[in-house]
């Protein structure tokens, strides 16, 4: 019979900085492509033209850099790239000029494609191929130092494939989706997501209510913010929750276990059922756990393919229609037609003294934000901070006006997130040319105890 463990003594905690079997990671390929990967011994990932086994990733720390081995079938860990010598030379005075160079296309390159293919088949490293291309270019020596650096960088993206193993955090997932498929997360940019979490007052032991139609990204970010101290309740309208493919990409198990799903109608019925005899909201018996609802289980398969492109779950990329509808409408249609109305959701249940949530986030571009807030108010305690995201300013302005007219909230503020990526290099620091101009708008405020009124009243 085994001796009992001493109090407070348990199995040693695993090092969370190490990639392990079954971990979910994001491979940042050459800084401009992101691949969602589940680390399992037999899985493969496509990098360039090669399908490589991800077995070498197991046991390596997060942030490690990998490249394609000479055999073209496996990944090998390489030291982080250091600043190239041309950066120091670029700080010197530039005397060359590109104005007399003639762009003759392939005629300026003496190294043929057949020769390049032969070098790659021999296992020559990509950096050597880049230098060979520069040496055989008829115009390379005449270019300025800046142009030479751009030439090397352009060729390196094709012949030097490097991938950084990043932890699947809310910031990394938001960046990956926004770079390639922003419509799947409602065009929610990283800075707007951070603004939502901050203005809603999310912290440990909070009881947040989240209406998320952005692929589950906001749900996962809220659970990550709680760090295991609390449960996030994801509310949805209709008979089934929308796609949660972004939520399935989070690595931490406590993020997945810290999210519960429930329909708005069921929550309002529990509140109306009354008081302390009703099942407490936010416990496993009250609402569906993450992955238990329709359309959520299949979302776990998203993004684990070899191409790195996330796949849509069983419910598709769904948004919300009217609350009385049996199903949900596609997010693309909702985005094209503008915000829709919640309909009868505002009359599902009268307000009740039992208001179990003390934080609220609404991130549903396909819904009218004013009607959505009015539907959620019976579930929110007085003095609850809330934040509402929308890609458009007008719906939030109308909701702000209605809330102010009804005296339903105080401290109302409508703001736009601001984000500019800068290229920081000697003598040429400037905003990046392909930056996104806007990250959406956020309406924030604090609820107050509502006056006695009929259950059928609406913001409109």
From TrEMBL:
The region called Disordered is annotated at 278-355, 441-460
Biological process terms from the Gene Ontology for this record are:
tRNA methylation
Q: Does the keyword tRNA processing apply?
A: yes
Localization (cell): Nucleus
Which residue spans traverse the membrane? none
For this UniProt record, give its keywords in alphabetical order, as a comma-separated list. Nucleus, tRNA processing
Biased amino acid composition, Gly residues: 290-306
The record ties this protein, via Pfam families, to: Gcd10p (PF04189)
What is one cellular component GO term in this UniProt entry?
A: nucleus
Which InterPro entries does the record match to this protein?
A: SAM-dependent_MTases_sf, TRM6
Specify residue ranges for compositional bias: Low complexity: 325-338
Q: Which PANTHER family match?
A: TRANSLATION INITIATION FACTOR EIF3-RELATED, TRNA (ADENINE(58)-N(1))-METHYLTRANSFERASE NON-CATALYTIC SUBUNIT TRM6
User: Which family is it part of?
Assistant: Belongs to the TRM6/GCD10 family.
Query: What is the name of the protein in this document?
Result: tRNA (adenine(58)-N(1))-methyltransferase non-catalytic subunit TRM6
């Amino acid at each position: 019979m085994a001796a009992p463990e001493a109090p407070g003594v348990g199995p040693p905690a695993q090092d969370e900085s190490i990639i392990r079997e079954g971990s979910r990671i994001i491979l940042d390929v050459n800084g401009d492509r992101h691949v969602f990967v589940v680390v399992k011994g037999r899985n493969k990932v496509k990098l360039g033209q090669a399908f490589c086994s991800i077995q070498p990733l197991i046991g390596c720390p997060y942030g490690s850099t990998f490249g394609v081995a000479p055999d073209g079938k496996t990944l090998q860990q390489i030291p982080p790239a250091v600043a190239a010598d041309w950066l120091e030379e670029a700080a010197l005075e530039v005397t060359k000029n590109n104005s007399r160079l003639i762009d003759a296309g392939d005629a300026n390159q003496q190294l043929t494609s057949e020769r390049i293919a032969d070098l790659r088949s021999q296992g020559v490293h990509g950096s050597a191929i880049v230098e060979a291309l520069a040496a055989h270019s008829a115009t390379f020596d005449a270019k300025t130092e800046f142009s030479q650096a751009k030439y090397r960088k352009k060729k390196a993206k094709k012949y030097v494939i490097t991938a950084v193993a990043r932890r699947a955090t809310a910031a990394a997932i938001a960046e990956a989706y926004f770079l390639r498929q922003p419509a799947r997360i409602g065009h929610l940019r990283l800075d707007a997501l951070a603004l939502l979490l901050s203005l809603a007052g999310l912290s440990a032991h909070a009881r947040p209510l989240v209406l998320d139609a952005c692929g589950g990204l906001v749900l996962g970010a809220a659970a990550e913010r709680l760090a295991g101290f609390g449960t996030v309740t994801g509310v949805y309208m209709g008979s089934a929750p929308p796609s949660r493919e972004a939520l399935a990409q989070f690595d931490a198990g406590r993020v997945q276990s810290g999210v519960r799903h429930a329909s708005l109608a069921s929550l309002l019925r529990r509140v109306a059922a009354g008081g302390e005899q009703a099942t407490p909201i936010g416990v496993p018996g009250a609402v569906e756990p993450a992955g238990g609802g329709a359309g959520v289980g299949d979302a776990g398969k998203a993004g684990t393919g070899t191409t790195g492109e996330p796949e849509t779950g069983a419910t598709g990329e769904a948004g919300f229609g009217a609350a009385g509808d049996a199903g949900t409408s596609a997010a693309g249609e909702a985005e094209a037609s503008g915000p829709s109305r919640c309909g009868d959701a505002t009359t599902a249940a009268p307000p009740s003294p039992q208001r179990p949530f003390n934080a609220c986030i609404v991130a549903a571009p396909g819904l009218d934000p004013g009607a959505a807030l009015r539907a959620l108010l019976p579930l929110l305690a007085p003095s609850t901070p809330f934040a509402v995201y929308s890609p458009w300013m007008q719906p939030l302005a109308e909701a702000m006006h209605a809330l102010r007219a009804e005296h339903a909230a105080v401290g109302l503020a409508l703001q736009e997130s601001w984000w500019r990526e800068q290229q920081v290099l000697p003598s040429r620091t400037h905003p990046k040319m392909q930056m996104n101009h806007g990250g959406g708008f956020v309406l924030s405020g604090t609820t107050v105890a509502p006056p006695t009124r009929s259950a059928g009243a609406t913001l409109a």
